[in-house]
Structures are given as C-alpha cells and as structure tokens.
Amino acid sequence: MAAMAAEEEEYEAVLCVKPAVHVYRVPPRASNRGYRAAEWQLDQPAWSGRLRITAKGKVAFIKLEDKTSGELFAQAPVEQFPGIAVESVTDSSRYFVIRIEDENGRRAFIGVGFVDRGDAFDFNVALQDHFKWVRQQSELARQAENPDQGPKLDLGFKEGQTIKLNIANIKKKEGATGNTRPRPMGPGGLSLLPPPPGGKSLVCPSGERPSSLSAPAQLPGTPITDALLSWPQPAAASSASAADVWGDFAKASGSASNQTQANAGWVQF
Predict the structure, then answer these.
(1) Which of 215 and 129 is assigned the larger pLDDT?
(2) Contact 24/110 with Cβ under 8 angstroms?
(3) What distance in Å separates the CA atoms of residue 112 and residue 25, rounded to the nearest whole number?
C-alpha cells in the first residue's frame, strides 16, 4: 500500500498547455500598489516559447519550455493560489508575475504575457480548478480521520416546537360514508319508497272507498316494478264489483269494520 501511494504521488498530470507565451524582466516593486505591465517594455520580451501547467500531488508547476525541443527554460512551483507564486498585474488581464525557482533553491520574479486573452483566462482557470480539488481532498481526508466531528443531522423537536397536521380531507372522506341514511322499513320488512318531490298525500275520508283506482304513475327516479304493474285496474263499478275486488283483503282483515278503518288510513304515494 505504501508503494502504491508513492507511485500516485509521483504521477504528473498536465493541466494546461499554451503554445505562445512571452517572458519579461520585471523591475523591483517600488511600493505595495502592485505590478504594472506597462513598465515591462512589452515590445522587447526577454524570451518566447510555450507554457505548460502540470500537477504532482498537491503542487502545481508552471513550466516554460522551448517550442521545438521542449527544453525547460524555467519553472515556478505553486503551492497556493492565489498567492505570492502567481500574481496578476493591475493594468491588464493578459499578464502575470510568477516566481521561478531553480534546482539550487534560488528564486526570481519574472513577467509572463499571453498573446490571446483567452489563453490568459485558461491559465487562470487551470490553477483555480487544481487548488479547488486540493481543498476538497483535504476536507475529505479530515472527515475520514474524524467522522464524529462532521455536521450531524438533528431531527428531534426543539423545546416548544410543534407540528400541524391537516386532516380535513380525512374527515370529509369519513363523513361521506357515514351520512348514508337507511330507508324506512314497512310491514313485512319491505322498504318504503320516499314520496315524490312536491307531492301531496291523498287521504280518503272516513267511511268512503275510492270509486276507481288510477294507473300507478311513474315517480321520478323510482321505476315501476312488476308488482305494481300487476295491480288490478277496475273501472267505476257498483258496490258489488268493488266488494269483489276488495274481497280477499276483507277476508284477510277479518271484518268489514277493520276493512273500512284500513281504507280510511290509506295513503297514495
């Protein structure tokens, strides 16, 4: 595992390559106001070649190389960005000041300028992305070493905190099934149909019998059953014929007085 980790650290990734770049001598900074590219004699670059940005582990390297042979002219190790190793000038977005370093540890500041403004933008973004990745890796490693120190999700109720549940729809559904009213049951367990809307009850006077029975009218929403259709339809007749029609009913009631009393309370629905 240690050997594998060492190999990963030795791996060098290429972050950015720009084929045209100019190098300028930078005069000593007179104050803390920053560098100005207008003071570099931009028409007389000290060197021209290509620029490569590589990364080995957490450190990025700005390498100035010959366009043809690839020979290294100078390199600037960058351990932090933004930082002292790479600084922007105050009067242009195409020029930077970088701190180069040789094998003996000697350092110097030089100016670097790009011909195209888009190349300068890519140079800046490549460094930003690399050190953003470095910060993310450092944070992940810290959390792996101390998992208990990370932010914890607290789902408990605070003191005095309440929640509100909307159960209006539930009550409505329960009430819909409970509002069904059973139909009234008549004698013998038969359910009685409700009276028609706006209809009037017809009560025969006491002691009188209806002279004729009209055909049952179809009530709104109540189909006529076969039992109603089979009801006898006598025409206006004498008391003898009426007695024949009501004869079975009179026998079942047991007496004529009971028959008269039943007819007096008869109601047409």
Answers:
(1) 129
(2) yes
(3) 9
